[in-house]
Predict the 3D structure of the following.
Amino acid sequence: METLLELQAVRKHFGQQVVLNNINFELSAGQIIGLIGPSGAGKSTMIKTMLGMEKADAGEALVLSHHMPNRHILGDIGYMAQSDALYETLSGLENMVFFAQMKGLTKKEMPQAINHATQVVDLSEHLNKSVSGYSGGMKRRLSLAIALLGNPRLLILDEPTVGIDPALRRKVWQELRQLKQNGIGILVTTHVMDEAELTDKVGLLLDGKMIAFDSPAQLKSAYAVDTIEDVFLKAEGEG
């Protein structure tokens, strides 16, 4: 399988604080990896470093075999940040069209792509409303729809289901599993431990270190517990 994401001995400091401590990580096509850890563990920094939004102090980060930032491969990456980056004076549809253009979709491709992405997040009937009037949950759904645009080879989703109800969360994960079947690689950070159970591998970040990285079944066996939530609690206690 093609390697889509690779971090080799990545270190990142903010002043005297070590935020990423010798991180090694790999994600392949057709794979969903969950990244879990308490707030402040380094999850978002790890994503920003691999995408070139933060510069690593040591080590190497490769995305689709390239160092980031690299505008030539941006169209192959669907990225959803932890905080929504939307144009609030525009409607949901106008946001979708703008980001579709940024990703290189043609006018012919746009209607179907936008329709599919907004159906996945159950936002179709709200597309003509101004984003300034959206609830926090609706903004998250729009951000996720934007990340899904354009048939990306790699999806990087930073807490995509925050503020989304359980039924819609299930629908989103059905879509992610379908994308996985189509060979797309997906990295998801989450605080919802039930979601971590749905991944192929789980990385557990604690104090900037990747203290565990394996399949949910292997992690539960290694920590002698029944759920990923218990893995998280036991690992955090040991840490």
Observations:
- The chain has one domain: 3-238.
- Residues 3-238 form a domain with the Rossmann fold fold (CATH 3.40.50.300).
